Each structure stands twice: as C-alpha cells, then as structure tokens.
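pinned: reference chain
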Amino acid sequence: MPSLRHQLLTLVIPRLRGTAEVHTDDEVARLRADIVATQDRAEPSPPRAVAKAFEVIRSEVGGVPVFDLREPGTAPVRTVLYLHGGGFVSTLDRFHWRYAARLARRLGVRVVLPAYPLTPRHTWRDALPPLLELFERLAIESSQGVVLMGDSAGGGLATLLAQHVARRPGPQPTHLVTFAPWLDLTGTTPGTDQARLRDPWLMLTKLKVYGAWWAGDPPGGPADDPDCLDPSPLANDPAGLPPTLLFCGTRDLLHPQALAFVAKARAAGVEVDYVEGPGMLHVYPLLPVPEAGSALATVEAFLR
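pinned: its structure tokens
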C-alpha cells in the first residue's frame, strides 16, 4: 500500500499542476500561448541549494544549454546523461535537479543535464542531433561509460536516443534507466483509456496535443527519417538496447505503454528489469515520498 505521504500527494499534485482537459481548437490555442509564455520566463539553472553544494558547469552543445553536475573535488569516470521530463513543454525543475544531486552523491558519478529544445516551438528533430553529439562527447570522456536516464517525456527521449545510438557504430550506453517513460506520443496504446481513469495527474487530451507538437506536423516517422525510426520509441524495434531498468506506477496514464514496451523489448532479447509500483503515481521515484528511497537503491544496485 502506498505511504501516507504518497496518498497526500495524490490529492495535492493535481491542484498544483492543473489537470484541465483540452477539447476545442480555442482551448488548444490558449494552452499553446500559456506554454510559450511560461517557457519565456523559465530558467533551467540549478536551484540555490544544489548550486551551493555541488560543482555545476554550464556549457553548450549544438546551441543547447548543458549542465555538468558533480560533487566538488571529484573527478568521476562514469557519467549519467539525464533527460528531464515535463511533457516536452517544460524545462528542468527542482525535482530533476534534486534527483541529479542524489545520483551524483550516492553513485559518485557525473550527471549531465541538457536543457533540450521544447515544443511547440521545436520538435524531436531539433532535439536529437545535439543529444547525439553530446552522447558521443561524453562517451569519449567517460572511461567507465555513459548511462542514459530520464523521466516521463525525458525517459521516452532517452529511449529514442538509445535506439538511434544502437543503429550507429561507436560507443554505446552501458545502461538505460527510465521512470514512467512516455513511449507512445499518440496515446493509443491499448489500455490507455482505462488507465486515464486511475491517473489523477496526467490528462490524455493534453498529452495527445503535446505529442502531436513534438512529433511535428505532419508527424515524422520511418518514411522520412534517415535512421528509419519513429519519434514514438514504442513503434521502433528495441533490439540493440543496453540493459534496461524501467519503473512505472499503476496509477499512471503511461502504465500500458510501459507494459507494452517491456514485453516488446524482452521479446527482442533486451535485458529488462521492470519495477511496478502498485497504486503509485507518475514518476514516483522522483517525488518526495518514502518509496523513492527504495527506487534509488534499486537504481544503484542495477548500475553497480
């Protein structure tokens, strides 16, 4: 049974995040305007507490801001490339920074967080090239390899990045770790309509709008992608992915996607560890709940 703190968050998060569905063109237009205005005000830099306790170096790759976080006085030989969630419309927030700080301290790794381009101004085609370049740089610099990690939209993007890297010669990620990854941009995975009734946080109509913006109009896919990959990782052949750890709660709209991906990846011979959180919310390993502690211990054991 979920902890009391988790049960309270189940009530609080929808009020803090806003959960209104969108149905009309006018509602979509207002949503787009609100998102663009929010993006213009957003700042992906680390919160003061993280910046004070950790060494954070900012750089750019392909015009994308990149933050390199590590404990002061250390020289990590292993890197976690972390792709943040936020529906492809929101940048790094305090939850991502705090989780990155926990990873750096607990595992003794370097955590690299790119503030990749966001929709509706950009699509996956704008984000992928700089992320591929960044991965290749990190793979050269990290003698013990690079772990790809991400939550929600970032978990889907980390999976897509791993799928692209798997089809290229050269270094590969050592592991892939995702928390409730968004793997089907269309929102049509069987079971989704039932899952939406259990999820007090994510709204399917909004996800479909964000997914359409991110995929592009008309949607990009195998027909016009040079690597013959779809922007929805669930639509692609998972063969060649590294050992994978995937977390998902059962009160998550993306739960059916997680199950479908795990089954497809295992059938393709990918080593997949799947951790299901009964009654747990979207991206619960990043939330301030007791269950996040055991999830981090599982990540640590998987990577060690």
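why pinned: The longest strand covers residues 55-61. Residues 124-141 form the longest helix (18 residues).
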